[in-house]
Amino acid sequence: MQIGVESGRAVENKRIFVIDDDEVSGIALQFMLADENETHVFGELDAALDKASAWPPQLILLGHGLCRGGEAALIARIRAHLAGVKIVLVCDAGSAPELATLRGFGADGLLTRPLELATVRRKVDAQLGRRTPLGIPLVVR
Fold it and tell me: CB count, 10 Å around CB of 22?
């Protein structure tokens, strides 16, 4: 068992699809999530949708690079095939206007690179409806 992994979550069998044409990013996300989730990585949407017909995911982490400007259409296509699935767009950190534009495409959330283990797990847990710890920074002066 890994440090920081709750055994109750490991047996819930929540299925996550990571769909990203950036192989390194996809494998990194799989590594970060595999201890508590059933995580599958796909390099293209069609392969993921084929797998989803038999094994539907609860959450999709969609790489922004895969969208190539068609984020809204791609997200709509996923929603048409998989009702009720949560979609988180994985993108590079950008300026506030760029991130606001990405939020408008219909995704349920955003993950920005560089990816950090605690942040990824917290955002994924929130999308899966799991309780997440409240993080209030304590500043003593």
Answer: 16
To the nearest 10 degrees (0 to 180), the angle between helices 23-33 and 117-127 is: 70
Q: Is 123 in a helix, a strand, or coil?
A: helix
Report whether CATH 3.40.50.2300 matches the domain 7-127: yes
Strand-strand pairing, 59-63 and 109-113: unpaired
pLDDT for position 16: 98
Q: Two tokens at 118? A: 């605690």
Strands (DSSP E) along the chain, which ranges?
Answer: 15-19, 38-42, 59-63, 86-92, 109-113
Q: Are 21 and 63 contacting, i.e. CB atoms less than 8 angstroms apart?
A: yes
Token readout for 139 is: 């500043």
Per-domain residue ranges of the chain:
7-127
Going by C-beta distance under 8 Å and a sequence separation of 6 or more, which residues neighbour residue 122?
Answer: 132, 133, 135
pTM over 0.85: no
87-115 pLDDT, tens digit each: 999 988 876 677 777 778 889 999 998 99
